[in-house]
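Subject: for your reference before the review

Hello V.,

The reviewers asked for a structural picture of the protein, and I figured it would be easier to keep everything in one thread rather than splitting it across files. Below is the amino acid sequence we used in the manuscript, unchanged from the supplementary table.
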Amino acid sequence: MPGRMLIVDDEPNIRRTIEMIHRNAGWQTASAGSGAEALDRLARESFDVIYLDLGMPDRDGIDMLRDVKARWPEQVVVILTGQGTIDRAVEATRLGAFDFLEKDCGKDRILLTSKNALERAALTAENRRLRERAGGKREFLGSSRAAAAIIQEIAKVAPTHARVLIAGESGTGKELIAQAIHDRSPRAKAPFVKVNCAAIPEELIEAELFGSVRGAYTGSVQSREGKFQAAAGGTIFLDEVGDMSLKVQTKVLRVLQEGEIQRVGSDEVTRVDVRVIAATNKHLAEEVAAGRFREDLYYRLNVVPIVSPPLRERAEDIPLMVEAFVREYSAANDLPSKNVEPEVMRLLERYPWPGNVRELRNQVERMVIMCPGRIVRAEDVSAEIRAGVPSVVLSRRGERLAPEPSMANAGATALPSSPPSVLPAEPLDAYADLSLQDARKRFERDLIVRALEKHRWNVSRTADELGLERTNLHKKMKALGIDRE
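And here is what came back from the structure prediction:
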């Protein structure tokens, strides 16, 4: 059965031709003349297949592909290419594009590619369902006192219908806690729907949460279901809830008070039965005091508060996590399982992990892939981990990280394999007169600036490295006063 397609190209004739070919074959089609328009539509509607031109004037096609894949990793994208851009189309396939077509390839080739792309989309969706049915979900791991307290709180609150507010730094596993609560609740067989409130533009989040009717806004060609309706009978997870506008907060408050939603553009009221779990990396009490978050909504959400501690406060959990992550990434990359030397574990336990569990995951994945043998040794660990100090702090001191050892030179390292037992006092001097909150902001700003400079201010690549959504990184840059000047 034909599916839904979005054609993204700045040439109207190309869009019309591809739309006509697919409509005659029974497809539902939509088009966008720019990258910005395409992202706007994707935030409101879902498509089985996207045809994406690499040569749009407002947005580089490679960057556009990265953005789409970052926000919707399973989205099937076919690249449209003109003469002279074949090399870039091949690069796009390495970044996750399903296939590429020359614009003058002919009707039969286009329809065959679309058929294959639709089959890929269906297979991806089925694999996701099978993984979830097989229990392949990640779990909140830990045996430390802090982790044990979290697990006990999950066990207590899961069987109830109480709302939960999970607070903690980015990367500490707030989503895993929410998933664990849902999986152990009476709603476990119903949907668990995740919404990243920081990744959705303010003008679109209302339609995303509550749905919309056809014609409610420009480009709204059909009615669509919101996330609250999609989660009916189950749980909705509002991640980064502190980034909601006051207007949307008012609508969410109504859902919590009345159990009712209203689609954008409709006067009809619909009742929903949904459990709400929210998470934030902000201090919501301070946001309330500053007038940026509704006090009544804060108390409605904060029925059962859970604090997800940073990884540096539960370093004893690192060996357990590392073992689990090594197994996971070895299997994912069809590699034999590897053992980690005790010295490597000591390095990992000493490192402060500003990026928390997310950063640890990235480091373990790198070790698994780059390690040439079956034993992960100190030389397989990144230079800043071996130094025991985040690279941004080393940069502040005017030191340079040694280049990573190549596979051919794996036995040599420019930095000692183990850090000094006591960190030098110099890196902390820069934070001496700051409050904890201001020191955290300065550290975060320095970390982002360094990553931007590393990638020559390419925001998409920087966001990938930092484990952030591109839109979330933009917000952080604005909040921290970061610009290229």
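For the response letter, the relevant points are probably these. The first strand starts at residue 4 and ends at 8. Residues 394-427 have pLDDT under 50 and may be disordered.

Happy to draft the paragraph if you're swamped.

O.
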